[in-house]
Amino acid sequence: MISAHLPVLQVILPLLSAPLCLLFRRTYPSWLVALIMSWASFAIAAILLGQVLTGEPISYLLGDWAAPWGIEYKVDVLAAFVLLLVSGIGAIIMLFAPGSIAAEIPEDRVYLFYTMYLLTFSGLLGMVITGDVFNLFVFLEISSLSTYVMISLGKSRRAMTAAFRYLVLGTVGATFYVIGVGFLYQMTGTLNMADVADKLPAVTETRTILVALGFLTVGIGLKLGLFPVHLWLPNAYTYAPSVVTAFLAATATKVAVYALLRIYFTVFDVEAIEAYPLDEALLLLGLAAIVSMSAVAIFQTDVKRLLAYSSVAQLGYMIIGISFLTITGLAAGVLHVFNHGLMKAALFMVIACVFLRIKSVKIEDMAGLGKSMPLTMAAFVLAGFSLIGIPLTVGFVSKWYLITASIEQSNWIVAALILFSSLLAVVYFWKVVEIAYFRPRNDGAAPISEAPALMLVPLWILVGANIFFGIHTDLTITSAMAAAQSLMEVGP
């Protein structure tokens, strides 16, 4: 039955369809292939999440080779939850993409965008679903190499520079990761995550394993944009085409956070993380990120760069949740992975609509857009409310759990800094709102029309998701809690 092969179809469908876009070399057929594959992957992810929430984790053996000799795809609640996010964001963005891409990518390169998108999409899904630490590296490289190309497709010359910087730092990150995998293999003789976890207790206290964990942490930290190794992220987000930025901000860094969770809690365990002690280091880095990067965002004059620094700060919240090493803290981190994907995709899609109409993303050029583009800017306001953490939005839900986890550990300073960073978010968010709603356009400026309906509909679907999952939290909280409990239980 085809249902038994859903885990591999999740990865194979977009991977094998990417060459079709290269063969078509035409915009519409390439978009249609990407659209169909994205929505097919979303349907598969929804089915897999339903199966693991009501049953046991799914294990799929490629070629019927038993693990650890063969590659195993493993779908538990955490994997299925992240698969749903990545495929859902990809599906919505493919509805949105044609209008934005036409304005930001030369027509003769549009097919190349869809080819690279499908490769990135497949690589991210593969990273989530694989149960093999080296196979994770393979998918990491597939997604990274195609991401570099997508970033370079921007019309600005700086897009190429941003892609090159990301290439260099991304290569360093991948090298660190694969060296860490090599040390793990040296000490355990296996690459399967579950098998490595079984064999680690005998060698956990060796210097080699300590070095391996350090390399893995730095490598994944570079990929997720962890402060202070986030230097590639602001330029990549700023100069990439807006659709590329929306997709990467909502998915790529979230999958890297997922990879960190897998290494820390599936391969290693809580005791190993506490013994080294990585939890304290992660907490300090997370706190530094949410305060410093929020402060840096306040002084930006470019909305995409402002939102880029905001993303580094928001990643800090996820890292803080992981650092608590408690079920509530992990659940808060996992929740924010999902919730931040929804809010940041919506915000960058708004900026794509703005660029389509005014050919700029400078804050000062957005004067009067509240009246000229009321639906677009209303979406920005609601998604911004979610970013700040206003009640009835998804941002409030994850920050509530994060503060709850802080209070559970009587860590009032952390709770206070989380609230303080949310106030900083109000400041940089208000900068844009003030210009758009309270400053009129220059006299004699050309009239501006609302964004096309084909872009507004998917944008408002995401904005609606920010509100819906902020009110109806059963699916997200149930999935995050189940994922957190599973992570705390696994390990040697």
What report would you give on this structure?
- By secondary structure, the chain is mainly α.
- The protein has a domain at 277-492.
- The protein is built from 20 helices and two strands.
- It has helices at residues 6-24, 27-54, 77-104, 110-129, 133-152, 157-188, 193-199, 207-224, 233-239, 242-267, 270-275, 278-298, 303-323, 327-358, 369-372, 374-388, 394-408, 412-438, 453-471, 474-489, and strands at residues 58-61, 72-75.
- A two-stranded antiparallel ribbon has the order 1-2.
- Helix 12 packs antiparallel against helix 13.
- The radius of gyration is 21 Å and the shape is globular.
Shape: globular
Strand tally: 2
Structural class: mainly alpha
Query: Could you give the distance between the termini?
Result: 34 Å
Characterize the main sheet.
2 strands, antiparallel
Q: Work out the helicity level.
A: over 70%
Mean pLDDT: 87
**How are the strands ordered across the major sheet?**
1-2
Please state the CA-atom Rg, rounded to the nearest Å. 21 Å
List SSEs in N-to-C order.
HHEEHHHHHHHHHHHHHHHHHH
Low-confidence stretches: none
Q: Note the total helix count.
A: 20
Outline of the structure:
The chain is mainly alpha-helical and 492 residues long.
